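pasting for ref
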Amino acid sequence: MRRFISRIIKPWLALAATAAMVGATQQGCTKDPGASAKAPEAAAAPAAPAANEKREGGVRVVELSVTEKGYEPSPVNLKKGEPVKLVVTRKTEQTCATEVVMDGYDINTPLPLNQPVEIAFTPKESGKLVYGCAMGKMISGVFMVD
């Protein structure tokens, strides 16, 4: 019986304790706590309807919010070569999206809670442009550039 305990039970208990500690210390970054349980069809959301288009001096203004659901609205349609001013407001503490990162545009901007932050850029290429949090874009949004 001692052999069974020392060779089987002790390693299993050590593995279980390690897994519990790792799970407790990781600060995961998800849009929705039940996201992993959703069906794949739910992940492929249809394109969002066009938001009211605002302009300031020929520059398109896009208002984005960071909520418990992530970046909203998303996706947003943009035009290649058209200057854009993003106005991003983080409205929750329950997110790792405390900054917005956009590869290829040198954008890495902090998002203080409940303060609108303006970010100006011009889409250079057509296609899908993904932006998101600094944790590998675990929380992300999409610009569809025509």
